[in-house]
Write a structure and sequence with these properties.
259 residues; mainly alpha; 11 helices; 71% helix; globular
């Protein structure tokens, strides 16, 4: 079987099994929000599968698997701390979904998350299978953007975490640092990560297929579980304060405040 097929299939088998275990755990503790933690860590598992099975140029494999692992670990540890600090209290997004979804639908949702892991990791495989014995300027540009986006995502998460740690900020809207210029800087840099992965993949055979990553992530951010659900929850919890924040602050791309 071609490695273009075998690597995704083996990766899906691994992360699907992990998600079955996490679904059982999440159901037992009545907190389906744990899926977010392992969605992030699953990319580390897939990076390991790619490392051992892809037979491309070794320096390119080091670059793509290293960046994928770095991003997976950063996001996974952040979510582990955030979600793991209150396992007995499910996040608002999942509480809202619990009112609409059965346990069976949540099981399918967990498996869909595993499938999304594999689909989003498609460019990692394409890049790691590239046997061209020289890293191109396009790949270096994509890698640099990827690293900067990881830093930006980490910085925005850190700023929000520090804001929430202050008891005096309870009920307020975070406008510290990057959050002063965008209502969702974490989502902005998350999308930029996948744009940079797409750019990096363009130097590899079939790399154009990586367009599925920024398109699908953008759809999720703007239409499904990203901005819509986050803002609905923010309005429920912060009311007019958040509505004023909406009026003055860019929804996505960091930009200057409106008067």
């Amino acid at each position: 079987m071609s490695p273009y097929l075998s690597i995704p299939l083996i990766a899906f088998a691994a992360v699907s099994f992990i998600m079955i275990l996490i679904y059982i755990w999440g159901r037992s503790i009545r907190n389906y929000g744990v899926v977010d933690i392992f969605w992030a860590f699953n990319f580390l598992v897939i990076a390991a599968v790619i490392w051992f099975l892809a037979d491309g140029f070794i320096e390119r494999k080091v670059l793509v698997c290293g960046l994928a692992s770095l991003w997976s670990l950063r996001l996974g540890v952040y979510l582990l701390i955030r979600v793991g600090s209150h396992l007995n209290e499910e996040e608002g997004r999942y509480k809202a979904l619990r009112e609409e979804w059965s346990d069976t639908i949540f099981f399918l949702f967990f498996q869909a998350q595993a499938f999304s892991n594999v689909m989003l990791a498609l460019p990692f495989s394409l890049i790691a299978l590239n046997t061209e014995p020289q890293i191109s300027i396009v790949e270096y540009i994509g890698a640099a953007m990827w690293l900067l986006s990881i830093i930006g995502e980490g910085l925005s998460d850190w700023q929000l975490k520090n804001f929430k740690k202050n008891p005096g900020n309870k009920g307020k809207v975070c406008q510290d640092g990057l959050w002063n210029y965008s209502r969702h800087p974490n989502y902005f840099f998350q999308l930029m990560i996948w744009v940079s992965v797409f750019i990096m993949a363009l130097a590899s055979p079939y790399g154009y297929l990586a367009i599925i990553c920024p398109v699908s992530i953008g759809y999720l951010i703007f239409k499904v579980t990203g901005i819509p659900m986050t803002e609905e929850q923010a309005i429920r919890s912060r009311g007019d304060l958040y509505k004023e924040y909406q009026r003055t602050t860019s929804i996505f791309v960091p930009w200057f405040k409106k008067n």
